Amino acid sequence: MKYIIGNWKMNQNAKIIDNFIKSFKKNKVNNVKFGLAVPYVYIEKIKKKLGKTCLVGAENCSEYSSGAYTGEVSAEMLADFNIDFCLVGHSERRTIFAETDEQINEKIKQLIKNKITPLFCIGETLKEYENKETKKVIKKQIEKGLKGINASELNNLIIAYEPVWAIGTGKTADAKTINNITEYIKNLLLKMYGENSKSIKVLYGGSVNSENASNLLTDLVDGALVGGASLNAEKFINIGRNV
Ligand code: 13P
């Protein structure tokens, strides 16, 4: 079964979301697990309206547990809304908000402490891709991001391989590359965590849509993390139909 997880980023508003909910509820797709990572302020509404048909997650959380951190939202607070997962280390957080591997590691620890599945994003920039550094970069991101986390704490961890150059650009990595990198990630996790690593899902993200999804998601790839094409319920559902 494939996971098709949307990431709304800083998009949508209450009216658009009402329409999304109506169209999303009408559609039934078997053998696909849908999920939506949504802005904090809409979590409660989406959870209430779509929580039975769809996993609901946040897009970020604080690396701190509580205290004087104006504007931050802790993993403990998110747990109050029974969210199913939380994105961490998205490339937009890494580049625009200068998040480091160390901060990402703290966030993952906060999520695990609060029994929320981390959806941990990794991926190389265009420059790193052109320099053929993809494997080196994602190995470093995984090792630093998961530092100090042991096999019994993985808490249904999900990893999303999202090449930065493929996000929002209409360019995707090709199916063979996605398959190879997924295999590389799974082998690395096997070395780190042994048999326990087999519960970790590995998704691909970067310009996935209903036309390219079935080609990009080989058997080894557990699903997709979808940005732009998750904003419209029909388009989003169609990705699930086509995989
Ligand atoms: P796009 O699907 O818009 O390329 O975005 C991918 C992404 O960043 C999902 O997290």
In short:
The chain has 243 residues and is an alpha/beta fold. The protein has one domain: TIM Barrel (Alpha-Beta Barrel). The site of 1,3-dihydroxyacetonephosphate has 14 residues, from strand 8.
What does this structure look like?
The protein is of the alpha/beta class. It has one domain: TIM Barrel (Alpha-Beta Barrel). It has ten helices and eight strands. The chain has helices at 14-26, 43-50, 75-79, 91-96, 101-113, 126-130, 134-145, 175-193, 213-216, 233-242, and strands at residues 2-7, 32-37, 55-58, 85-88, 117-122, 158-161, 201-205, 223-226. It has an eight-stranded parallel barrel, surrounded by five helices. It is globular. It starts with a strand and ends with a helix. 44% of the residues are buried. The model has no long low-confidence stretch (mean pLDDT 97). The structure holds 1,3-dihydroxyacetonephosphate. The site of 1,3-dihydroxyacetonephosphate (13P) has 14 residues, from strand 8.
Please describe the topology of this protein.
Blueprint (H helix, E strand, L loop, with lengths): L1 E6 L6 H13 L5 E6 L5 H8 L4 E4 L16 H5 L5 E4 L2 H6 L4 H13 L3 E6 L3 H5 L3 H12 L12 E4 L13 H19 L7 E5 L7 H4 L6 E4 L6 H10 L1
Parallel strand pairs: 1-2, 1-8, 2-3, 3-4, 4-5, 5-6, 6-7, 7-8
